[in-house]
Design goal:
It is a single chain. By secondary structure, this protein is mainly alpha-helical. It has one domain: Growth Hormone, Chain: A (Up-down Bundle), CATH 1.20.1250. It is built from 25 helices and no strands.
């Protein structure tokens, strides 16, 4: 007998609409976020910082990328609260507008040679807005999908929120690859890099049209009808769920794999001062292929987590990808592009998806409806803020000329990803817990589902006896 939540069951159409909205919105918003990542590794060191010290320019450029993540905890507190007080739909529309506008303005910025220090200042400010906006995206989209998914399929449907983020990275690389390949290097550095940013105007319009047609989460609506929407969900979340907030902040450190693959790996492979000499277009193929594989793998891993639980895929994905980082960085150091592509696909496109596909269901399932967006947003974005500082830290501890970069950075990556796996392993299982009982603390993973089944059987037996 299948156990369902006491919350009204969503229709198939509601589930599909919520999932499609989460997928498309995440794809469009993370397209914006990751075109900045590509530009920060490839062209921003030369455009927005003094030319006299290329090593410092690389570190500073990667630091501006990290600044976007530093803004995420602030966005987590503010936007998470809006998601729990004004609704998931309201939150997702707001995030879309802030992201689209800030990304478009990056494409209009003057360079350091034109306005001096004002250029990096403006770049940092707009990156802060980007980071603030993206802070509410995954927690809002994951909660929206989770709350409209059938019991026993939450992992599968919620995984599409992350599949959308991977698709957004594909779109970002798909724009940069032809520009970097077909345009003369001087033209690309002068104005070609601006094209992907200016296309964000289209992203903003498309995202608004799609998301405004989606109905609000029934679970949130029911909370409001019962007077359960709190005026201060952040305070309640920090008081009642602080252990799980800390736990998912540590779990989020597994994103070090993405940082190594797309940010530090790009700078290591492309920047002349490292001496590797990958052409920018060649390196763009690495995250492009890895993300294509990830898009294929993610739904299968999400569905697997509905059968075996959330913890095992997360642990295997985090530790396994950390181990493969050694091989990936070695391939770059050996100047072996085919090997770098293969190891990237295995590390990032396959193994890491054990974490990536499952956390959109695992993290929000740890919290009740009334504080779900706030709690997940705070915890995840604090972890992401810490993780995003790693590329510039890696560039600082392993600058150009350092020996054994694969060993140094690979070891750091493995240690961090193992910490994330340990945090996941200490969390309770949630995949068999009904929606309206999420956020409680059962003594075992299946207690609530088992109790509900037993209660249902007892009721049926009493009815037959009568």
């Amino acid at each position: 007998m299948q156990v369902t939540s006491r919350t009204a069951s969503p229709t198939t159409q509601q589930t599909r609409r919520a999932t499609a909205s989460g997928w498309i919105g995440s794809a469009l918003e993370y397209y914006d976020f990751f075109i900045y990542a590509q530009a920060a590794a490839m062209v921003f060191p030369q455009l927005f910082f003094p030319a006299g010290n290329p090593k410092l320019a690389i570190v500073a450029s990667l630091a501006t990328y990290g600044v976007g993540y530093v803004a995420r905890p602030i966005g987590g507190f503010i936007l998470g609260r809006r998601g729990d007080t004004h609704g998931r739909k309201h939150l997702l529309l707001l995030c879309m507008f802030l992201m689209g506008a800030s990304t478009f303005l990056v494409g209009l910025l003057p360079t350091y040679h034109q306005v001096g220090v004002l250029a990096p200042i403006a770049l940092v400010l707009l990156r802060l807005v980007q980071g603030f906006a993206v802070a509410g995206e995954i927690s809002g989209a994951s909660s929206m999908i989770l709350e409209q998914a059938p019991f026993g399929q939450r992992g599968f449907y919620a995984s599409f929120a992350l599949q959308g983020t991977q698709a957004g990275q594909i779109f970002a690389a798909a724009i940069f690859i032809p520009l970097a390949y077909y345009m003369p290097a001087e033209d690309f550095a002068s104005w070609g890099w601006r094209i992907p940013f200016l296309l964000s105007a289209l992203v903003l319009v498309a995202g608004f049209v799609i998301r405004r047609k989606v109905a609000e989460s029934p679970a949130f609506v029911q909370e409001g009808a019962q007077g359960g929407v709190p005026s201060s969900p952040v305070t309640i979340a920090l008081r009642e769920n602080w252990r799980d907030i800390v736990r998912i902040a540590i779990m989020a450190l597994a994103a070090v794999i993405a940082m190594v693959a797309t940010i530090f790996g790009a700078a290591y492979a492309v920047q002349p001062s490292y001496g590797i000499g990958f052409h920018a277009n060649t390196y763009l193929v690495i995250p492009f292929v890895g993300n294509i594989v990830a898009v294929i793998v993610i739904p299968f891993v999400g569905k697997l987590s509905d059968r075996i639980g959330r913890r095992i895929p997360v642990v295997v994905g985090s530790v396994g990808a950390g181990l493969l980082s050694y091989a990936y960085l070695y391939a770059i150091s050996a100047k072996n592009a085919p090997l770098a592509i293969v190891t990237s696909v295995l590390m990032w496109g396959v193994i890491y998806q054990g974490f990536n596909a499952v956390f959109p269901s695992f993290m929000p399932e740890l919290f009740p409806t009334r504080t779900r967006v706030s709690a997940m947003s705070i915890g995840q974005n604090i972890g992401m803020a810490l993780t995003a500082l790693l590329p510039s830290m890696f560039a600082a501890i392993a600058p150009p000329g350092t020996n054994d970069i694969p060993l140094v950075i690979g070891t750091a990556t493995l240690v961090i990803s193992t910490l994330a796996a340990l945090a996941a392993w200490t969390a309770r299982e949630t995949y068999r817990t009904p929606l309206d009982e999420l956020g409680s603390r059962p003594s075992s993973a299946g207690l609530y589902a088992k109790t509900a089944v037993q209660s249902s059987k007892r009721t049926a037996a009493v009815t037959r006896a009568r």
